[in-house]
Amino acid sequence: MDATYSNKQVRLAARPVGLPRATDWHITTESLSSPAEDEVLIKTLSLSLDPAMRGWMNEGRSYIAPVGIGEVMRANGIGIVVDSNIAEFPAGMHLAGWYGVQQYLKLDRTGLKGAAMRPVDTALAPIEKWLNALGGPGMTAYFGLLDVGRPNAGETVVVSGAAGAVGQTVGQIAKIKGCRVVGIAGGAKKCEFVVKELGFDACIDYKAGTLREGLKTHCPDGVDVYFDNVGGEILDTVLTKINRHARIVICGAISQYNSTSAIKGPANYLSLLVNRARMEGMVVFDYAPRFGEAIQAIGGWMKDGRLRSLEDVVDGIDAFPDTLLKLFNGENFGKLILRVATA
Ligand SMILES: NC(=O)c1ccc[n+]([C@@H]2O[C@H](COP(=O)([O-])OP(=O)(O)OC[C@H]3O[C@@H](n4cnc5c(N)ncnc54)[C@H](OP(=O)(O)O)[C@@H]3O)[C@@H](O)[C@H]2O)c1
Known about the structure:
Mean pLDDT: 97
Shape: globular
CATH superfamily of the largest domain: Medium-chain alcohol dehydrogenases, catalytic domain
Order of helices and strands: EEEHEEEHEHHEHEHEHEHEHEHEHE
Number of helices: 11
CATH topology of the largest domain: Quinone Oxidoreductase, Chain A, domain 1
Number of strands: 15
Oligomer: single chain
Low-confidence stretches: none
CATH class of the largest domain: Alpha Beta
CATH architecture of the largest domain: Alpha-Beta Complex
Strand content: 25-35%
Bound molecules: NADP nicotinamide-adenine-dinucleotide phosphate
Largest sheet: 7 strands, mixed
Distance between the termini: 20 Å
């Protein structure tokens, strides 16, 4: 039966200078008709809000093309097929992929491939988990820690952004692998959660200004692996505590993403030389062919009660511009998700 769908979309109106402002966004509504032959109509359920979105708003060369002015903002998410003329994607199927910040998508076979749409089994785990520990952040944590950080049992692993999406899973996997794990997070509440609920050995509240002393107290044998989500001064301080042959995983540098001046690089990089240490960047997309391996491992640990996945869910597509800012002021507690609709 023919139907018309009203599709609200959040488009990039301008390239932000510093933190994104309301005027950097333009909210539009388009009308979508029922899918034609060989097309599906998918309803967006939940979107992953990622610090990387800030980078995608900038002009310039990166690991992925920038979002163009006037385009729908890029976002990963999960939705449900509501009307289908493609047998392999029947109505009721949940799909993960590139949705963009919009309520609906109508795609043909080429579009489904381009948006990397793949089925997810919501009977195995709820949508939020597929956007967190079983999704991009979990994949980043798993491969960043195990392939790049290569921790050995008994070593000390430090992770910043410890209560966040990637950080929480990094620390828990490092514990499972038999390491001493020290988190770095903003505020007493997050630190308490990281230790009491996630089982880290310690967590340092960098906002209390005690990072240097905290590292001295909680890493008495030095730092073997530092998983860096934040860059800036925190990276510089941890560099003063690394051990010989330490591995530093450059996952992100959120402290620098809204900088209006030059990005602050590590002044203490010669510590790498002195300690014969390695600092290496990673991009999760490179590991896509191996995601199944990580999903199996993380899913198993979740089932055994050894790994938790905490999300922070905000409702409504209109809330996108304000909600994104939570990542940069530390208001999000766990993986930040925008729930656009329920099934
Ligand atoms: N390389 C990859 O393939 C890849 C993939 C996914 C994510 N990432 C990166 O991983 C990092 C974490 O992403 P996520 O999705 O897990 O986000 P998240 O940790 O859930 O949220 C961001 C957190 O960053 C912290 N933060 C914000 N501004 C900060 C500052 N100036 N200094 C220190 N901490 C600050 C805040 O926590 P506090 O309250 O603790 O300050 C905030 O809650 C980001 O840098 C992201 O770009 C990389």
